[in-house]
Design a protein that fits this description.
CATH topology of one domain in chain A: TIM Barrel
CATH topology of one domain in chain B: Neuraminidase
Shape of chain B: elongated
Radius of gyration of chain B: 34 Å
CATH architecture of one domain in chain A: Alpha-Beta Barrel
Helix content of chain B: 40-55%
Strand content of chain A: 25-35%
Oligomer: heterodimer
Helix content of chain A: 10-25%
Distance between the termini of chain A: 76 Å
Strand content of chain B: 15-25%
Largest sheet of chain A: 11 strands, antiparallel
Strand order of the largest sheet of chain B: 3-27-26-25
């Protein structure tokens, strides 16, 4: 830093010292420290030669020198956690790479918190002291990176069909100046060469597969990917215009691999809110494709500081890092699969695991009917010079639409009202009093009354994430999340902010008291499609805290209002939500992906109802409806009483086609299709999904029903059944 | 007055259009007055071809051509080769010759396949166009064309080329398209681009020295970037010349048949600089659907044969599937798939049309073929997918005009927000009505005119009579006494000024309030009642409250500014008098605004002149009254009145500027303090 700059800084400092002291000392809060337990050991272990350290009904865990392998007793397959000379010419690699392929972990760190430079190393490369201890059904490796003065333990044990990897927080020690930023676990577990058969599964959008044997054709693919599970504030704020999002939606903390006829699914069970899924292709120095999990211990940032001695325009960038470690136990479970280990098997294993642990709750019962998902867009403000309320559907008109559809035979609805509040949709933070122009409390009451008589549940759209900078109902000091340097987190043009967890709770507590009676639930926007941390005040809210806080908010809504729905499908809300909006029909298109699969749908089908984009916005109606059938979606439209033209000069102009009269026939037809023959799979789990050809797919349900979908323009015969061109066949269980 | 509204509107615009919360959307859109408008997905990514069998990888390829059999020809410029692929992406032929061969290529930048399968190659480095048979045998080559016109230092480096059915070769020569016949004789330039008129240059010409002028004369018009010869013989070309339109359709004489408007959108680069669109290539399919490739954003702009924007599509620049790095060339195959060649990726990215855009193409083709009934059904199919697709409303409207269903056409034009079209339909309908009810209409007009004449005379008399009574003090002051005052104002403003100055106390606040209400009602009513094609703001978008506030704000800034200025220029009027007189002076606006709006409902765009004249008379009359009041109330002579008026206007601007400045600066100041504060906190915290 130049002298001149220091001086100017100093001057401003003295001016602002008072305020600073106030801000700095005022609201220091003493958080009750979480406590963490170490994993108990039963003596040290000599692992100079491989020794069986754990055994379950299905698995055998063997520990060797700094490595482990796990064998599946059922099908005799074995998985090594590191590369050995037997499967790969390790000795041809550089020393650094040799260290990487022979280590169970790879750590990233900075030598000091003052001058930040992120480096990485492995126990082998760093010559860390590695001690093995015996633990119940497994082994604990304690790595002491003596040069860095960092110590941590990796515990591995088997449990049923699971191989569990755990990094207990109690055993992470930083006893020098170096600080830990992340730990990558089991990079080479399930690694595969381009010649191997099989694929990696990663949870982008509906789910994506990367096939090993197609790698040579993908010379344009990026060599490595690192995806943050559940998204981030910057991704959320950047996702605005008519270009593709740079990142996908990573709703589930899972990944998987199928290699030469057997496979596993991995699920991050602790520390999932601060974890990445990393995928490396064979285009790197080690010619193996790998997929693994990276636990984040400290976030790093690019910090921009205006050069005060410059013209005020130029800014310099440096890397900064959290002081505090994100304190949490980290745990990853590999579910080793019987059979061929396809993505269907992975999804089934994940669903069963989530149902067992309560991370997913069955909300659909056998008695439930398929509802017609119907969003009614009530109104919004125009974006003209002089802003005006633009009414699209009044409550009375909404009732009229419901009645028309009921008359056509729709027996169950899930009606979500968007913009039911004062000033309509999109004026965040919103004033959640009932929209007067749409008919006010009486109008809404009449609508909910009518809805009840027609078998419709009415949901109210609410948003406790987005804040528009030009809004007035918030305090930039209290309600907005802040970044590491304590300035508000915002987008490029400072037009949007994000709400803190505390304000979300406070506001919802106030708003929920005023919610009109007769409403079935609240549909929360934002919670399910992003996750962020917050440095507001001195009270750091970690991503995990934020997720827990939102989950609590959903619990409150379930209690006080009745039920909650979310937009997006982040896993931390799946135990509280009864309906998911906006579950994508594809992956987001990373060039490494070979095809999209309905993985997410296989996990949640039969438990939680889900919808994708409204059918009235489909560009290829027939083909996209087939996709709804294939992926088990509910029928879903977003309609208005007025023509969609009225939305042109509003921020909701992406709803380009919504005139109800134009879609009554289609809504009735789609409802009939999805609630007719297909209605019998509504409460069933999806047990398998397979591609029978390039344009022919088959989805199997737990009640034995198979649904064949044919996208080609010619009829196809398979399993003795003829599937019509651009059509589908529902085959009931036992027939085939 | 309306002008003031526009100025204030513009100023407000600058400060309030912040903080728009966008809704995430698909990738495709239309442009509606420069604003993006979401569109049903028009094209979806199909595949990327980056491996070319034994040929290996492409090296900075520059051009591709797709023939009628969907064979793909790639100018693999960096490898000095031409690649021929069949419709299954198998490499059929690689044309790559060693140095001895007379077919040896040097950085070929263009390729074209004739209907007989023979190849024309823009052999850029060798300054020739090479003609090879389908099998790759040498047929002929075209070096520097023969012509006396071209001069000795003629630089020739053919890149993009095309051959017409009639056997003419076309290539780009900077700012023109060069036409060469089969004997390699230069047949002339067509469609020479021109230097846009520039006020700056005109001034420089006026005052510049000889050297400067010489430099100016050397300014070249922008060159062509690319062109395409459609199957039907039409030439389409792109330039960077935004003045005459960057996307052009050239007829045989070289005249541009596309509207000379700004095509595409400006984008912002990584450094925050605004970048003008760069249409690197263009192509047209058999139905004259034109697709132009914008290089900076990786977006494709599609137009119909008349230059109407059909869709903006493509996934943009990036690393995901269907995204580009440096897209350089575009072509379309017989099934409507769009092929984009990316020079950095060395790959072809293929987009597939969706059912939606196919329905648009079908409707446009039917319309162009004159099959109106079928076209109407096809346009309705488009609207069933995208209810905001204006072109479909417009198409149906045009068909309805042809079917003489003018009321229907007007409805559709209105939905398309096409005022010109609406006017045309309206005029035709008016014509019909006039023909049917000519006698009654003329009768009504005569009655109205005569009535109006007597009304005016009556009012004038009444005004004079009332004025007399006032001055004799025969009338007691009541709230509604402003009515005769208003009438008097039309006839004898001087008297009114005198009365107001003498007896202003009689005209209490309630009277003023009533007059303001009248003014606002007249203003809002006028706005709301003006016919659709002539209205600046559509009736349903008029907000009475804000319009009312605007009128009052204008009236009061005028009064405040005038008071401030007259106070300096030894004026005699008090603030109350100024407000009262200014209010009364707006009587022509109060009385005429609504009738003119009603009259406008008989007018279309054709009568724009008449409408402007009427509103002009109303406004000028109002302004004249305002000025006369200013003069009488302050006891000024004409010269001083003019001076004070000018200064008052400046003062008004100043008031508005200060208000805006405080608004803007306040925000900036707060922002600045906040930035400094956080940076200092940060620096202290980090111990820097």
């Amino acid at each position: 830093m130049t002298m001149k700059r220091f001086l100017s800084l100093f001057t401003v400092c003295t001016l602002l010292m008072g305020c600073l002291l106030l801000a700095g000392c005022g609201e220091k809060q003493t958080d009750t420290e979480k406590t963490f337990d170490a994993v108990p050991t039963t003596g040290t272990l000599n692992i100079s030669s491989p020794v069986v350290v754990g055994e379950s009904e299905q698995l055998t865990l063997t520990a060797g020198d700094g490595t482990v392998s796990v064998a599946n007793k059922q099908n005799g397959t074995a998985w090594n956690a590191t590369l050995t000379e037997a499967v790969y010419p390790v000795s041809e690699l550089t020393k650094i790479w040799q260290g990487t392929v022979q280590s169970l972990i790879k750590i990233s760190y900075s030598k000091s918190s003052a001058s930040v430079q992120i480096l990485s190393t492995t126990p082998v490369q760093a010559g860390a002291k590695c001690t093995a201890y015996r633990i119940e059904n497994g082994v604990k490796f304690v790595y002491d990176f003596t040069a860095l003065q960092i110590e941590l333990a990796l515990c591995l044990w088997v449990e049923g069909n699971q191989l569990v990897c755990r990094i207990p927080q109690a055993e992470v020690r930083e006893y020098g100046t170096a600080i830990l930023t992340s730990v990558e676990v089991m990079q080479f577990f399930g690694s595969a060469a381009d010649t191997d058969e099989g694929y990696f599964f990663y949870p982008d959008g509906s789910g994506a597969l990367m096939e090993f044997q197609k790698m040579p054709e993908k010379k344009l693919a990026t060599k490595s990917y690192s995806w943050l599970v559940y998204g981030s504030s910057s991704e959320y704020l950047a996702n605005t215009d008519y270009t593709m999002a740079e990142n996908g939606n990573f709703f589930l903390p899972v990944f998987g691999a199928q290699v030469n006829g057997s496979g596993f699914a991995a699920v991050i069970t602790e520390g999932d809110t601060d974890a990445k899924i990393n995928l490396y292709t064979s285009a790197l120095a080690v010619k193996r494709n790998r997929i693994c999990c990276e636990f984040i211990y400290r976030r790093t940032y690019d910090v921009y500081v205006t050069n005060l001695d410059g013209d005020g325009e130029s800014r310099s960038k440096f890397t900064d890092i959290d002081d505090e470690i994100i304190a949490a136990d980290r745990e990853l479970r590999y579910l080793l699969l019987d059979g061929e280990g396809s993505y269907s098997d992975m999804a089934v294993a994940i669903r069963e695991y989530m149902l067992k642990t309560g991370a997913l709750v069955d909300r659909i019962t056998a008695a439930d009917q398929v509802p017609l998902g119907l969003d009614l867009f009530i109104g919004t403000m125009t974006q003209a010079l002089i802003s005006d309320y633009q009414s699209m559907t009044t409550f009375a008109e909404g009732g009229e639409i419901l009645q028309l559809l009921a008359d056509r035979g729709v027996k169950a609805f899930d009606v979500t009202l968007e913009g039911w509040n004062k000033d309509g949709y999109g004026q965040w933070p919103a004033d959640y009093r009932v929209n007067g122009q749409a008919g006010g409390k009486t109008g809404l009451h009449a609508l909910t009354g009518l809805a009840q008589s027609l078998g419709a549940r009415v949901w109210l759209n609410m948003n406790y994430v987005d804040v528009a900078a030009d809004g007035s109902r918030f305090s930039i000091k209290r309600d907005i999340i802040r970044n590491r340097s304590n300035s508000p987190v915002t987008d490029l043009i400072d037009s949007r902010y994000l709400l803190t967890a505390a304000s979300a709770h406070k506001w919802f507590a106030a708003d929920s008291k005023r919610l009109p009676a007769g409403v079935a639930g609240v549909a929360f926007e934002g919670f399910g499609s992003t996750l962020y941390n917050d440095y507001q005040g001195n009270n750091l809210t970690e991503r995990g805290d934020m997720a827990a806080s939102w989950s609590d908010l959903l619990a409150t809504a379930n209690e006080t209002v009745g039920a909650s729905a979310v937009y997006g499908g982040n896993a931390y809300l799946l135990n509280r939500a009864s309906r998911l909006h906006g579950i994508p029909m594809t992956d987001s298109g990373f060039s490494v992906s070979d095809r999209s699969v309905p993985f997410y749908q296989m996990v949640v089908h039969g438990s939680v109802a889900y919808s994708t984009e409204p059918a009235n916005l489909f560009y290829d109606y027939d083909a996209q409806v087939l996709k709804l059938i294939e992926y088990g979606y509910m029928p879903y439209f977003k309609l208005t009483y007025e023509r969609s033209e009225g939305l042109k000069s509003t921020t909701s102009n992406t709803l380009f086609s919504s005139y109800y009269a134009a879609y009554l026939d289609k809504a009735e037809a789609l409802y009939t299709v999805l609630s007719g023959d297909l209605g019998q799979v509504w409460d069933a789990y999806m047990t398998a999904h397979e591609a029978l050809g390039e344009t022919l797919f088959c989805t199997t349900y737990s009640n034995g029903v198979r649904v064949y979908v044919n996208y080609s323009s010619e009829a196809v015969e398979v399993d003795g059944i003829t599937i019509p061109a651009l059509g589908y066949v529902v085959q009931e269980g036992g027939k085939a | 007055m309306k002008l003031y509204f526009r100025i204030t509107a513009l100023l407000l615009c600058l400060v309030t259009l912040l903080g728009v919360l966008p809704v995430s959307a698909g990738t495709d859109y239309l442009l509606d007055d420069g604003e993006k408008l979401a569109l049903s997905q028009a094209y979806v990514y199909k595949e990327t071809i980056s491996l070319f069998g034994d040929h290996g990888e492409l090296l900075v390829p520059e051009d591709l051509y797709v023939d009628a059999n969907n064979y793909v020809y790639i100018a693999d410029t960096g490898n000095n080769a031409i690649l021929v692929l069949n419709d299954k992406w198998e490499t059929v032929r690689v044309l790559r010759f060693d140095g001895e061969d007379k077919r040896a290529l040097d950085a070929p930048g263009g390729v074209f396949c004739d209907t007989d399968g023979s190849l024309y190659i823009g052999d850029t480095g060798n300054k020739r166009i090479l003609h090879l048979s389908a099998e790759g045998e040498y047929i002929e080559e075209f070096g520097v064309p023969e012509s006396d016109v071209l001069g000795k230092d003629f630089i020739y480096s053919p890149r993009r080329i095309a051959v017409s059915d009639t056997g003419y070769l076309y290539t780009i020569k900077e700012k023109a398209l060069m036409k060469i016949d089969a004997n390699n004789t230069f047949q002339g330039y067509i469609g020479a681009t021109t230097l846009a008129f520039s006020l700056k240059n005109m001034f420089i010409r006026l005052f510049a020295s000889k050297e400067q002028k010489a430099k100016l004369l050397n300014q070249e018009p922008p060159p062509y970037l690319s062109f395409a010869l459609a199957r039907d013989g039409e030439l389409y070309a792109t330039t960077t010349d935004s003045a005459s339109g960057q996307v052009m359709k050239l007829d045989v004489t070289g005249a541009n048949m596309f509207p000379a408007v700004f095509y595409g959108e400006n984008s912002v680069d990584a450094d925050g600089n605004t970048v003008a669109p760069y249409f690197a290539d263009i192509t047209a399919d058999s139905q004259s659907v034109v697709t132009a490739l914008e290089q900076h954003t990786g977006k494709l702009y599609q137009y119909d044969a008349d230059g109407n924007l059909l869709a903006v599509f493509g996934y943009g620049i990036g690393k995901k599937k269907g995204q580009f790095s440096i897209p350089v060339a575009v072509d379309v195959d017989s099934t409507g798939n769009i092929y984009v060649l990316d020079s950095q990726m060395g790959a072809i990215v293929v987009y597939e049309p969706t059912a939606f855009i196919e329905s648009v193409h079908a409707a446009v083709a039917l319309y162009n073929a004159g099959k109106y009934q079928e076209a109407k059904t096809a346009f309705e199919a488009v609207l069933a997918i995208d209810g905001n697709y204006d072109l479909a409303y417009e198409g149906i409207a045009r068909i309805l005009v042809k079917e003489e269903d003018y009321t229907g056409a007007m409805d559709y034009y209105r939905m398309a927000n096409d005022k010109a079209g609406y006017s045309t339909a309206f005029s035709k309908q008016r014509h019909e009505i006039f023909r049917a009810y000519f006698f009654w209409i003329v009768l009504a007009a005569v009655v109205l005119l005569v009535g109006a004449y007597f009304a005016v005379i009556g009012l004038k008399k009444a005004a004079v009579v009332l004025r007399g009574r006032y001055f004799r003090g025969q009338v007691k002051a009541r709230v509604f006494y402003f009515v005769p005052l208003l009438l008097c104002m039309l006839v004898e403003p001087q008297e009114v000024c005198f009365y107001v100055k003498r007896d202003r106390m009689r005209l209490k606040l309630p009277s003023l309030l009533l007059m303001w209400v009248g003014l606002i009602v007249a203003h809002v009513g006028g706005m709301m009642l003006t016919s659709y094609p002539l209205a600046t703001t559509a009736a349903e978008n008029v907000n009475p409250v804000t319009q009312g506030l605007l009128v009052m704000a204008l009236l009061f800034t005028w009064a405040i500014a005038q008071y401030a200025v007259t106070a300096i220029f030894s004026g005699e009027a008090t603030f109350g008098e100024i407000v009262t007189l200014s209010t009364i002076s707006t009587v022509p606006y109060m009385l005429l605004s609504v009738p003119i709006a009603l009259l406008s409902r008989l007018m279309g765009r054709g009568e724009q002149g008449l409408y402007s004249m009427l509103t002009g008379i109303m406004l000028v009359w109002t302004i004249v009254l305002l000025l006369r009041c200013l003069k009488y109330a302050n006891g000024y002579f004409f010269g001083r009145m003019v001076l004070v008026t000018v200064i008052t206007l400046l003062a008004m601007l100043l008031i508005w500027a200060i208000v805006l400045l405080i608004y803007a600066l306040g925000g900036q100041f707060v922002g600045f303090i906040r930035t400094v504060f956080t940076e200092v906190t940060y620096a202290l915290e980090r111990g820097a």
